[in-house]
Design brief:
single chain, Nucleotidyltransferase, domain 5, 2 domains, six-stranded mixed sheet, three-stranded antiparallel sheet, globular, binds zinc ion
């Protein structure tokens, strides 16, 4: 527990990007009400400003830091925000703010730990459908995973336009809504392209195989994003959905996401109010799925997707996901470094 500041937390200081050994001196400590032990303070010898261990942590300036891990656990165990607020004794606004901050850290953590993917692997793409607020406003959620390890590479929520047959009550509702607030946008292609680009950014020029169902746009988008380095294989969605189906890994991952994220459940009261919140929730799911949870229930507990893919040597605890702030990119402290000594890259 002997924390040593790895860099000056002020990004404009020279000791932030290229810290010298002992650029800091000790500067006492303080006793926050929410902790039993004092928090050490430091002073930068170059910019003369002071900071503490807290400056490097995810829960910097949080009011109830003890609730963060419990909230994270609840939100990846299909609990809704309101129920989590009741369980943890927090207000609705506090839970919303914590949720957004957790999601930002999870998003950065995934970016930092998955900067590059190994070459010549097979990835699987599919879209999950859900809706925002009412079922006449459908959403799409493309997800790309690594086929063998189930590692979730990228997700992107967006609106789609799906009109009911003319003459039905549902169609009439949709037409009233579009007359009032404009034609609903269909961003399916944009979202699929964004997930494929997120994959391409981690592959460099190396080749890959991409599996998907037979939706016509997948082939064209794959060629547009990867050029000649992709081998795209489309599988008929009429094949039985068994473990022998080539799309089984993505079907199972989407089923897990519905199990872990209450807002994706079908026939449930718990729905997404805004699509942005669905995307935030997916950042939590991605961090939990890749770095904390084992690949499948019959795998060893240490075999998380990130370990199987060689990105980490062991699973992360929930506390470690939310330990250090990750928004300094590769200069952030690595989630497994308890003394703060190791940077992400
Ligand atoms: Zn400094």
């Amino acid at each position: 527990m002997d924390f040593r500041p790895p860099r000056c937390p002020y990004v404009e200081c020279s000791q932030h990007t290229a810290p010298r050994p002992r650029f800091w001196t000790r500067h006492g400590s303080y006793h926050p009400r929410c902790r039993r032990r004092p928090v050490p303070r430091f002073r930068c010898r170059f910019c003369d400003r002071t900071f503490s261990r807290q400056t490097f942590r995810h829960d910097y300036r949080d009011r109830r830091p003890d609730r963060n891990t419990k909230l994270f656990a609840a939100l990846v165990s299909s609990t809704g925000l309101r129920q989590a607020a009741r369980q943890l004794g927090l207000g609705g606004g506090a839970v919303q703010r914590k949720f957004r901050k957790l999601a930002r850290t999870c998003r950065w953590l995934h970016r930092n730990l998955c900067r590059e993917l190994p070459a010549d692997r097979t990835f699987v793409l599919d879209e999950e459908e859900t809706f925002e607020k009412a079922s006449i406003r459908p959403l799409t959620l493309p997800v790309v995973i690594d086929k063998d390890t189930y590692f979730v590479v990228a997700t992107m929520a967006g609106p789609i336009r799906r009109l009911a047959p003319p003459g039905t009550a549902r169609r009439a509702r949709q037409e009233r809504e579009e007359a009032a607030s404009g034609r609903r946008r269909d961003r399916s292609r944009v979202c699929v392209r964004a997930t494929l680009r997120a994959l391409a950014g981690r592959l460099g020029d190396s080749s890959l195989t991409l599996l998907s169902d037979e939706k016509a746009s997948y082939g064209t988008l794959a060629t547009e994003v990867f050029g000649t380095s992709v081998r795209h294989i489309a599988t008929s969605s009429r094949l039985p959905r068994t473990a022998f189906n080539p799309l089984f890994p993505i079907n199972l991952t989407l089923a897990m996401s519905r199990d872990n994220c209450g807002r994706l459940r079908r026939d449930s009261w718990l729905v997404t109010e805004k699509r942005r919140c669905l995307q935030l929730h997916m950042h939590l799911f991605t961090a939990y799925r890749n770095y904390v949870r084992r690949r499948r229930n019959h795998d060893r507990a240490v075999d998380t997707p990130a370990v199987l893919l060689g990105l980490l040597t062991r699973p992360l605890e929930l506390e470690e996901v939310l330990a250090w702030r990750q928004d300094w990119g590769p200069r952030s402290i690595h989630p497994t470094a308890s003394t703060g000594a190791i940077a992400v890259a």
